[in-house]
Design a protein that fits this description.
globular, single chain, 9 helices, 270 residues, alpha/beta, 8-stranded mixed sheet, 20% strand
Amino acid sequence: MTLFARHGVSKYSNALSDWRGLVARQLPNVAQDVIVIDNALPPGHFQREDEFELIGSSNASWEFSAWDAGVAYAGPRLEHYDFIALVTSAFRQFDPVHLDLLDEVIVGRLKGRLNATGHIDYFNEPVNLTGIELQSWIRSSVVLVPPVALRRIGSLVSIGDGRAFFSGDPLQPFRADAPISHNYQQYISGWLTGDGTGQGVQWHSRFTLSAEALPLFEQKALAILNEQMLTHRLRAAGFATIDMTWFAGQSRTGRSPVTIPGWREQLAAR
């Protein structure tokens, strides 16, 4: 099943058909049911389209609260699927080549594993969030997990309240006592409003931080924290994280590794 999170009509308005086309083209023998969670529609909204179900959701925590709404709506049905695909309408942004590698061989070899699969990103150095060291994570645009993963971790929202993090001052947006390391603050500010995180890539929607833009900064910063904490929580719950490109390379050679190496080894050839 795909839980497809989006926010109203945007430049990604064709993303749902693109995702469904990708699955039909690359996984022709894999059945897919789709629940679209639109957090621009009110909670409780429901309509059945020809090929998917559409529900509304709170936008309190962006795609993470939307996915929570999708999980709650689907209920016990989720247990009947081999995989749950957590997808956002921005799934084609940045390095989408890894999705072109997704095929039935990979899906077959992932089936039955306690893994979370997607595109692994990383910072150049570790950061700290509420005492937890983080450095790598699966990009939230597409995450494949077995249903048991959603049962184990519960809500997909890890941090729902930003008051401990943000100062309300656009000149210094993070509180002096925020439970987040200084380099993490710099990475977030650089990604949202500057030249990136030092890896030569810039966010497609970066903006100038001002009093007017401060709410957007805080919301997007929380989404970043939730994205990276999701991977941490999946790992803590016993799910190895797999980089799609690495696993595809293993599959092409006929290997299906029993033990999944750490993220550095997986990304070494990327």
